Amino acid sequence: MSMENLCNVLHGMRPLLLMIVGQIVLAGMNIMFKLATSDGMNFSILIFYRSLFASVFMTPLALFIERGKVAKLTKMILLQGFLCGLLGGSLGQNMYLQSLVYTSPTFVSAMFNLIPAVTFIVAVILRLEKLGWSSAAGKAKVFGTVICISGAMLLSFYKGPDINMGNTNINLLHSAKQKEESKPLLGSFLAVAGCTCYALMLIVQAKAAKRYPCPYTFTALLNIMAAIQCFFVALVVERDWKEWKLGWDIRLLASAYTGIFCSGLLFTIIAWVVRMKGPVYVSIFNPLMLVIVAITAYLFLGEKLFLGSVLGSIVIVCGLYVVLWGKDKEIKNVSQLVPEEVDIKSSSVKGSSHGGSSKREEKDEEEEENKRDSQAGSEILGGIYICP
Questions:
Q1: Which residue stretches does the UniProt record annotate as biased composition, category Low complexity (predicted)?
Q2: What are the residues facing 171 on neighbouring strands?
Q3: Which of 49, 131, 282, 316 has its CA 20 to 30 A from that of 167?
Q4: pLDDT tens-digit profile of 133-184?
């Protein structure tokens, strides 16, 4: 193979390689979080520093990339940024980390694959999305959600025998300053509650995207809001300023890594791949993080793999793909429908002077709104989230 052909192949593989790198980055986040909390770092302080590092990274990046765009920060956008910071930062991440403390990185990674299914449930309850039971896409979303919930229940209530694959004799948690008590049921509840917070955040974020066409700036705003909120939460929880100090240790590394790479660099990667391949392409890589976390935790944290964890994770991933298939089919159907309506509109305007054209315009506007809603929902259910 010539050098030119090799370059062409690598160029075509950029989205694939970037998504693999992105999932490795996310898997590293779970390991960093576990090591930092095991070192005795208060997770509320860790979340504050993560949001702070993310803000410092994203703000100049947003100013550089979107310097040519002019979009006014209205009161509604500020409110939506505050809510996203609250749901995805103060509440969501605290629940995520507390769940991680009570369980394991593999368990939490599996549970948070429920986010698309939970988002679908919340969107239907809030009447932001139609159930669509009469269509194949609607049935797929419902059945996929049921499968995801079944997998979560299996993961939570069935442990089963451990899967012995040998021993690496490496356990970075041996030097932990505090031994964490395992509470799988409470950890499961917190994980589901965290998924609900992220689902609500993604819905608010999708609404904000319609009003404010500057995703990098909005992400910077979200992180700034989260940093302010998390500061006050951490201040209430921990008033000993010695605990706030960051040395050249795992605490600084975890804060900088999760803030810069997970909330900053990863957002840029995902935004680029979405433009190239679409949201569903991004979403299909989410379970890869679960595999990487499971292998890494087994090799370096001494985490045991149990039959229930493996079976539950497989069921959740299967349900996730069913939900995403249904959403992908729905967005394709809407995309095919709208151009036809637009063509009818233009022909009716040319060939008729009746008042029926106004009704057609109203219908076109409704179809276009449905298309935008479906596309926003596609991005949500596609798993375009950089949290936790």
A1: 345-356
A2: 301
A3: 316
A4: 788 888 888 898 899 889 888 888 888 888 776 666 666 666 555 556 678 8
Ordered DSSP codes for 292-339: HHHHHHHHHB-PPEEHHHHHHHHHHHHHHHHHHHHHHHHHHHHHHHHH
Burial 342-352 (b: 16+ CB within 10 A, else e): eeebeeeeeee
Rounded alpha-carbon distances, angstroms, from residue 386 to 22, 60, 166, 284: 10, 18, 34, 15
CB atoms closer than 10 angstroms to residue 299: 14
Output the six-digit token pair for 155.
């993961």
**Distance of alpha carbon 337 from alpha carbon 329, whole angstroms:** 12
Q: Which three-class secondary structure state does DSSP give residue 81?
A: helix
Residue 249 has pLDDT above 50, yes or no: yes
**What is the C-alpha to C-alpha distance for residues 349 and 361, in angstroms, rounded to an integer?**
10
Omega prior to 60 cis, within 30 of 0: no
Are 301 and 171 a contacting pair, CB within 8 Å?
A: yes
Q: What is the pLDDT of residue 78?
A: 93
Give the Cα separation of 121 and 108 in Å (integer): 20
Task: State residue 146 phi and psi, 5-degree precision.
Answer: -60, -40
Burial of 372 (0-12, 13-18, 19+ CB in 10 A): middle
Taking the C-alpha atoms of residue 167 and residue 169, their distance in angstroms, rounded to an integer, is: 6
Residue 133: which residues within 8 A CB-CB, separation 6 or more? 139, 142
Res. 60 pLDDT band, cuts 50 70 90: very high
Question: Is residue 11 very low, low, confident or very high in pLDDT (cuts 50, 70, 90)?
Answer: low
